[in-house]
Every structure is written in structure tokens, then in C-alpha cells.
Amino acid sequence: MMRTLIVDDEMHVREELETLLSETGEYLVLGTCSNAIQALRAVKSMRPEVMFLDIHMPKIDGFQFLGMLDPDVMPLVVFVTAYDEYALKAFEESALDYLLKPVQADRLARTTEKLKRFLREGSKPTYDSPSIERIPCISGHGIKLVDVAEIEFVRSSESGVHLVTEKGEFLTELTLTVLEAKVPSLARCHKQVLVNLRQIDEILRQDASSLIRTRSGKLVPVSRRFLPQLKERLLIR
């Protein structure tokens, strides 16, 4: 059975799709998610082989969400949509397949055979996704979207990945690897730190290491390993 995750903001759609998948006998539904924050956690912890993903979701749509996943945990993705234009875009984004709502059993059967073939062959499609401009963070019972321009630096610790802004820190489910790859203005300055190039005010050189001072006066560590490429990004010789 294929280990599967369902991501859709509408509860009745999640329930109907879960029932359809279970009736085929081909899927083990690991869970269902109503938003991107839940889905990021679920993919990281459950490692599904297959994900049925709604395209048209509030705040973060399906295409944006894919760009927030670490390639190492990327499942096979089937887009689910009520809109034909989104279905067409799904193919432009190299989707494995798409289903139109309401999902029909015979159409799902064809998708199932395609998924089984991909899993047997061990192949995965690649998903082109836009750069991340707003980063979803955990905020009470909702999702707070932090604009990239507000971020001074990003630090990783045992408690998670934190976006540091002038107004405070925000916890995100995105990894440093994803943020470095998908946010052009973020650059690695330390094994556990990314800095926003647009927020750098000064690089302070010390005997054994260097520090970055941000525009608001925060100090960020720079390791010798990453200093050369950081200077190159800043056009410093």
C-alpha cells in the first residue's frame, strides 16, 4: 500500500478523498492536513510516498507549498483542483498527475496505476516552484506570513528554525536548506545561520572570526568557511 498524505483546506473534500483512497485498497492514508504548516510537519515526520495536494488554498497555494519542501522528503504529488486553469498549470509545473474535483473513481484508478509505476521504477518528477517571498511561521492557532524583506537573519537550534526580525523571532517549519535555495537574498554565513544580504550594515573582522552587524544593530556570527562566498555575494574583494 502507498503511504499517503492528503492536503486540502476543505474538510469535506479531505473526508471524501480519504474514503475514495481507502476503498481502492491501494493507499494507506497517514493523515490529512488543512494548511501548509500542518503539511510541512506531516511530510517531515511521516515521510509519505504520495501526496494529494489541493492547488487553490488560502495564504499559501499548492505550488508555493511545494517550494517549501526539502527535496529529500518530497513525495510523489498529485494535484487536486476544482479549476481547469490550475490543472493546466499543474502540468506546466511537471506534476505527476492531477484530479478535478469532485474526484471520480475511474479517474483516480488511472492515477493510481501511474503512481504505482513511478514507485516501482523509483523515479520522481521534479517540481519547479517560485522563489519564496513570504515565509509561513507558527502563530497561535494560525499561520503568520513573514515578508523576506523583514528578516535580518535565520538561525537553527535544537528548538527549530527561527526567523529573526527587528520586531522579534518567529518559528518556521522550513529548513535552512530550503530557505537558502528558495530565498535569493538569504546567504549562508555559518553552519546554522543564514543572513539577509539586504540587512547587512557592516562586517566586523576579528582575530579568529568575523561578525555581521545588521541594520538594527544585531550581531551575527560568520565562520571562516563561509566568509569568502559571502564576500563574493557582496562584491567585496
Concise overview:
The chain is of the alpha/beta class. The protein is built from seven helices and 15 strands.
Structure report:
This protein is α/β, with parallel strands linked by helices. The chain is 30% helix and 35% strand. The chain has helices at residues 11-24, 36-46, 62-66, 84-92, 105-121, 176-182, 227-233, and strands spanning 2-7, 27-33, 50-54, 76-81, 97-100, 134-139, 142-147, 151-157, 160-165, 168-172, 186-190, 193-196, 200-205, 210-214, 219-222. The strands form 4 sheets. It has a 5-stranded parallel β-sheet, with helices on both faces. Strand 13 and strand 14 form a beta hairpin. The model has no long low-confidence stretch (mean pLDDT 90).
